[in-house]
Amino acid sequence: MFIDKAKIFTKGGKGGNGAVAWRREKFEPSGGPFGGDGGNGGSVILKADDGIRTLMDFRYKRSYSGQNGEDGRSKKQFGKDGSDIIVKVPVGTLVKDEKTGKVIVDLKEKDQTYVIAKGGKGGRGNAKFATPTRQAPGFAEAGTKGQERHIVLELKLLADVGLVGFPNVGKSTILSMVSAAKPKIANYHFTTLKPNLGVVRIGEEKSFVLADIPGLIEGASEGIGLGHSFLRHVERTRVLVHVLDASGIEGRDPVRDFHTIMDELLKYNPKLGDKPQLIVANKMDIPESEIGLDEIKKEFESKGIEIYPVSAATGQGINELKYAIWNLLSNTEVEYDTFDEEVYEDEYIEEQTIIVKKENGQYLVEGTFVENLLESIYFDDVDSVRYFQDTLRRKGIVEELEQLGIQEGESVFICGYEFEFFH
Q1: Binding site residues for Mg(2+), as ranges?
Q2: In what order do the strands lie in the sheet with 85-90?
Q3: What three-state secondary structure class fits 66?
Q4: What domains are there in the chain, each with its CATH number?
Q5: Which helix (H) or strand (E) holds 363?
Q6: Which of 16, 269, 283, 393 is the most exposed place for a label (fewest CB within 10 A)?
Q7: Where is GTP bound in this sequence (predicted)?
Q8: Which of 263, 302, 261, 307 is nearest to 284 (CA)?
Q9: What is the mean pLDDT of each run of 10 residues along the chain (423 residues)?
């Protein structure tokens, strides 16, 4: 099993600020508040997409942010909401909180979505603060910040494609040519004792996992050699790529090799015969390979199996092979097989905190709610200051300060700003 991981940062857009505006039309002598609300910030949304096979694209981009909401305008016009950003991930992606390691969501169904970082709310314009006793509010509300989350995407991949063939036919070399994998390669049998895996990137949001299955031998289905271990890996792949030595320089008959491998696969699990497959005629840099290629074509072209002549040693035909595998995969129905892992209830709460404390003899008021309130206040406007004081009372902040022992005229520090306390 291959575990693909990526760490990314997600941030919802900030809500737009409410506007302070006044009616200025002719024949409207009384004027009045006329500021509109700010737009909501855009969210970051994860979406499971069956066209994506790996998390490779997240190595190139690690930060995703929703668009900020627009500020409100005059004439009670609302600001435009910020656009959401859709982040596509492979089906079967597990999303974890980086700090706690807990699973937030398992995106195991095609087109499943999850809001991972919600955008902030737009602030209310001054028109919303008008009351019978406060008919001309000279203040508006600031938009709130969007959620920020550091998350881990984890994909436990069963390889999309399995390279099968006898030992020493060039599977490991082909893997190293088409992917970034660096398998140990040597000219002797049973070089590979466990599958080597590599991610093959075709383009943006186009990649797949290729497994070099250790060389199979006759009798593998009965457990000869490491047969059962190897065949279990083949069983999990979606497409089979048979690598044949077209040169026959080791005394091998490529056509017979193909049938021997298929016999072992079918004895182990008859369903393996239903998998889409193609043939790679390797070692085409050796002159004798032309005869072997003719034999391979004569045997398999009529059966509808595509044949790709390559030379892993020189790179000939490798690119064509890579794209052929991708096309075969793209036209193969996916059977989603994820895994069991406990998903915890998402504990992330949009923080609107209020902290009231006494520290080193100073009275402190902090928290995101108070920060946002301060951004909304115009201290040269009487109504705005009165709204600020009323909100502090309504939220119980004044009462908490009194319980801590604050006296009339003492200083209180609210988010770093010093105020004189009066009841």
Answers
A1: 172, 192
A2: 85-90, 44-49, 113-117
A3: coil
A4: 2-156 (2.70.210.12), 158-330 (3.40.50.300), 355-420 (3.30.300)
A5: strand 362-366
A6: 393
A7: 165-172, 190-194, 212-215, 282-285, 311-313
A8: 307
A9: 78 92 66 86 94 84 95 90 95 88 87 94 88 79 90 79 86 84 46 65 86 62 48 73 91 91 85 90 93 94 93 92 93 62 61 83 89 80 84 91 90 88 79
- What is d(CA 36, CA 74) in angstroms, rounded to the nearest whole number? 6
Burial (CB count within 10 angstroms: exposed 0-12, middle 13-18, buried 19+), residue 374: middle
Known binding-site residue numbers: 165-172, 190-194, 212-215, 282-285, 311-313
Residues 54, 2 contacting (CB under 8 angstroms): no
Longest distance between any two alpha carbons in the chain, whole Å: 102
Q: State the Cα–Cα distance between residues 357 and 378, nearest whole angstrom.
A: 25
pTM: 0.62
- Residue whose structure tokens are 């497409």: 239
Q: Which residues are annotated as a binding site for GTP?
A: 165-172, 190-194, 212-215, 282-285, 311-313
Amino acid at site 68? N
Q: Are strands 206-212 and 239-245 parallel, antiparallel or unpaired?
A: unpaired
